[in-house]
Write a sequence for this structure.
C-alpha cells in the first residue's frame, strides 16, 4: 500500500462520552469525536468509526452526511472484509503536519495533510557525529524549504513530530545514554526544537514512530499487537500493544539492539558485550565487508552486492538475520505479537533478509508463537519514521479551530 494511501488505524479514544445536554451540543460533541478519530487514524469506514468512537452506526452515518454536506469530509466507495463500504476522508482545510526523522547520517522531512496525503518530502545527508545544533539547523532549513516549495504558509503548520534514534526519557524530554547519537545525550530535544521551529513539537524514539506508521500509513491497521524493528546503524523496536504505543515506565522500551547475543563478543557502545548491534547493525556489516576491500563500503553497496549474489555479503546478511530472529524470539515469547515488521535501510532485500530472520525466530521462540507470528518487511521503506512523526502531530492536534476559521 503506498504511503499516501493509508489504511485505517485503531487509535483508542478512551475519553468518556460527554453527559447529554442540548441536542445541538451533543451533536457537536459527537462530531468532534468523529473528527478526532479521523485525525488520529486517517480514512476509515463508517463501521470502523463507530467502533472507535463508541457511537452507533446510525449516529455516525448522520454525522458523516452533515460533515460531507459542509465540506469537512469527503466520502468514497471502498470495500471492508469483502463488503461494500463508504470510506470517510477528512478534508485538509489547508493545514499540514511536519514529520522529521533525524538519523546518524540522514535527515528526512515530510509535510502531510490531515487527510494523510504527503504534500512535500525531501531528505539530505548529515555528517557522522553531527551535534544537536547541526541537526536542528538542517531540519529547520529543510522544513522551510519544503514549505516554500509547496507554497504553504507557516501558520498552516499544525506542529512537528521529531524522531530521534535513541532512548528518550519522557519525564524530562532528554536523550539518554545509549543513543546512536552520543553527541545528543543530555540535550532537552523538546525545548531545543520548540524554540527554533516555533510550532508545537512532539518528540519520540524513531522506532516508536516507525511502529505508529505501520498502523496509520501502512497496511497493518487491524493489528492490535505489533512490533516494528528498525535495523540500521542502531537496532531498536517500537511496540504497539492492545492498539496503543507502549512506553513502559520512563519511555525507554524496545532496546533490542542491546540484547546479548554473544557473551564473548565485542564491547558494544552501551558498555555491554556481544549485543545484537555488534552482530547485526549496518555499521557492523560495513565494518566486516570493508576488510580487504579497496572500495568504499556503505549500506547501498552492501545491498547491491547481496542482490548480485556476492558470497561474503550474503553470509553477513544471513548471520545478521538469524541473530535478529533470535532477539525477536525472546521478545515474542514475552508479548506474543501478531505481526513483526522489519524496517530501516535494508527493506529492499525482502526475503533475502526475512528468511534467516524467520529461521532464527522459529529456532528460539515457543513453537506456537513462532508458528503464529507473521514477519514481514515494512512497505514504507525508509519513510516510516518521518511518516510516523507526522501522524503524531495529526493525532495530537484537533481540527475545531481550523474549521471555525475556515467558515
Amino acid at each position: 500500500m503506498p504511503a499516501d494511501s493509508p489504511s485505517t488505524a485503531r487509535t483508542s479514544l478512551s475519553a468518556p462520552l460527554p453527559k447529554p445536554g442540548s441536542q445541538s451540543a451533543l451533536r457537536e460533541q459527537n462530531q468532534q469525536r468523529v473528527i478526532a478519530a479521523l485525525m488520529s487514524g486517517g480514512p476509515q469506514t463508517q463501521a470502523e468509526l463507530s467502533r472507535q468512537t463508541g457511537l452507533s452506526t446510525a449516529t455516525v452515518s448522520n454525522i458523516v452526511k452533515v460533515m460531507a454536506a459542509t465540506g469537512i469530509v469527503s466520502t468514497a466507495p471502498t470495500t471492508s472484509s469483502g463488503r461494500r463500504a463508504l470510506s470517510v476522508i477528512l478534508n485538509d482545510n489547508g493545514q499540514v503536519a511536519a514529520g522529521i526523522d533525524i538519523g546518524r547520517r540522514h535527515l528526512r522531512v515530510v509535510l502531510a495533510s490531515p487527510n494523510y496525503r504527503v504534500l512535500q518530502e525531501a531528505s539530505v545527508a548529515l555528517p557522522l557525529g553531527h551535534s544537536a545544533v547541526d541537526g536542528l539547523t538542517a531540519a529547520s532549513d529543510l522544513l522551510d524549504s519544503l514549505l516554500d516549495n509547496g507554497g504553504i504558509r507557516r501558520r498552516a503548520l499544525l506542529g512537528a513530530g521529531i524522531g530521534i534514534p535513541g532512548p528518550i526519557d519522557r519525564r524530562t524530554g532528554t536523550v539518554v545514554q545509549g543513543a546512536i547519537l552520543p553527541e545528543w545525550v543530555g540535550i532537552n530535544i523538546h525545548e531545543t526544537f520548540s524554540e527554533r521551529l516555533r510550532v508545537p513539537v512532539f518528540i519520540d524514539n524513531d522506532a516508536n514512530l516507525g511502529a505508529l506508521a505501520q498502523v496509520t500509513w501502512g497496511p497493518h491497521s487491524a493489528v492490535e499487537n505489533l512490533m516494528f524493528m528498525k535495523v540500521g546503524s542502531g537496532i531498536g523496536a517500537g511496540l504497539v500493544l492492545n492498539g496503543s504505543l507502549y512506553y513502559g515506565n520512563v519511555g525507554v522500551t524496545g532496546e533490542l539492539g542491546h540484547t546479548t547475543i554473544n557473551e564473548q563478543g565485542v564491547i558494544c557502545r552501551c558498555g555491554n558485550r556481544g549485543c545484537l548491534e555488534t552482530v547485526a547493525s549496518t555499521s557492523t556489516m560495513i565494518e566486516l565487508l570493508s576488510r580487504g576491500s579497496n572500495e568504499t563500503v556503505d549500506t547501498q553497496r552492501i545491498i547491491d552486492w547481496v542482490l548480485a549474489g556476492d558470497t561474503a555479503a550474503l553470509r553477513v546478511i544471513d548471520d545478521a538475520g538469524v541473530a535478529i530472529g533470535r532477539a525477536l524470539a525472546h521478545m515474542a515469547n514475552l508479548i506474543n505479537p501478531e505481526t513483526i515488521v522489519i524496517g530501516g535501510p535494508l527493506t529492499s532485500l525482502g526475503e533475502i533478509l526475512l528468511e534467516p530472520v524467520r529461521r532464527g525466530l522459529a529456532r528460539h521462540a515457543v513453537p506456537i508463537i513462532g508458528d503464529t507470528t507473521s514477519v514481514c518487511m515494512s512497505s514504507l521503506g525508509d519513510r516510516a519514521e518521518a511518516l510516523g512523526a507526522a501522524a503524531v502531530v495529526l493525532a495530537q492536534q484537533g481540527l475545531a479551530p481550523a474549521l471555525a476559521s475556515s467558515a
Observations:
- The chain is about 40% helix and 20% strand.
- Residues 5-21, 398-407 have pLDDT under 50 and may be disordered.
- Residues 246 and 287 are 33 Å apart (CA to CA).
- The first strand starts at residue 44 and ends at 45.
